[in-house]
Amino acid sequence: MKIAFQGVRGAYSEEAALKAYPDAEPVGCAYSELVVEAVDAGRADYGILPIENSIAGVVAVNVDLFLAHDAFIFGEVYLPIDHCLLAKPGTKLSDVWSVYSHPIALAQCREFINKHGYKAVPEYDTAGSAELVAGHGRPGEAAIGPRRCADIYGLEVLAEKIQSASANITRFGVFTHKDKVPSGLKPEKTSVAFKAAHKPGSLLGCLKRFADNGVNLTKLESRPVATDPFAYVFLVDLLGGMDDAPVKKALAELGADAADIKILGSYPLGAR
Predict the structure, then answer these.
(1) Residue 101: CA atoms inside 13 Å, Cβ hemisphere, count?
(2) Which end of the chain is more exposed for a tag (fewer CB within 10 A), N or C?
(3) Among this protein's residues, is 170 annotated catalytic?
(4) Tens digit of pLDDT for each residue in 66-79?
(5) pLDDT of 97-150, one tens digit each?
(6) Smallest Cα–Cα separation from 128: which of 222, 18, 14?
(7) Catalytic member of 5, 66, 74, 172
(8) Neighbours of 85 (CB within 10 A)
(9) Which of 91, 126, 170, 190 is catalytic?
(10) Most distant CA pair in the chain: distance in Å?
């Protein structure tokens, strides 16, 4: 079984994929769009993309992909993110002057970087930054990324858990086409998108449909609609499977105050 992820070997997304499916063959893709394309084209059975981070919030580009494509989330994976400083063997902390990583990782490790006076250099990927530093061979360069990248790219761990906040967790969504969702799963959580009608109290009316049916919302946020300036789509995560009676009733009633209702996925609760 193949599962597509964004990044190169050693990426956090690959780690999340293997956490969900230890026997799977991870397929790395340069961009998130290519992960969805790999599933669409049948080059991968499943795809996995980060949806939100406990510090940085929603991963907007990936949420927008779920809105735009026929991708159905059937699993969620929570992965603790522990950033390490990686460099060529023999490098000391005092030798480092520039640090490569994804902009979010650099931001999460800003205190450590500033404390040591390093120059932060943004790159497209954490594991890709480790691969870059290993390939450069230039003194004074280091990368911030997963510990397993040290083994993969022949680097040393100069420091670990260097992020400013210790509770740094990313939530990933595992997806495929709806007709290819594995059997035997027990959905306990559902993700839904909708547009509230343009009338006073419509959003309140939407939320009341869930409340009146005893459906608990665990997340509510809005995203701009690219094709309709200053229009917004609302995203909710709720407890309960899409076929549970209270959820079905709430979704059926939602149409009175909302349009373009789309179920993004229904899946078992991921272990934190």
Answers:
(1) 30
(2) C
(3) yes
(4) 999 999 999 999 99
(5) 999 999 989 999 999 999 999 999 999 899 999 999 999 878 899 999 999 999
(6) 14
(7) 172
(8) 25
(9) 170
(10) 65
